[in-house]
Amino acid sequence: MMTVKLQVVIALAILVVFAILVNMIRKRSLELKxxxxxxxxxxxxxxxxxxxxxxxxxxxxxxxxAPVNMIFFLGFCFSLVIIFSLTxxxxxxxxxxxxxxxxxxxxxxxxxxxxxxxxxxxxxxxxD
Length: 128
Hints:
The chain is mostly helical. The chain has four helices and no strands.
């Protein structure tokens, strides 16, 4: 069992991390859509820190032998969620970069065509 002192320390640490997360969102160094998973995990950890018997009840319900194994299982699931959300974000950014690259290439082509037309017009004017 967790002592009350340990519960308080864990709860304070979670609140500090939550405050840092909110501050990063406020300063726009972290986007809200990427921080929502972290906020959910912090809330779950805070609940389990304040009510450690709930962790025992949930681990028994899921058929997990020890509450410590439940924590490792939740950490594994959390890691999978983070990896999946980052993969989705990376895919979206990759598509955006491809689209932007195509737009830049088309603009460069148009610019070179316009420069060629300008050169031809100058040459024609200089001949006259």
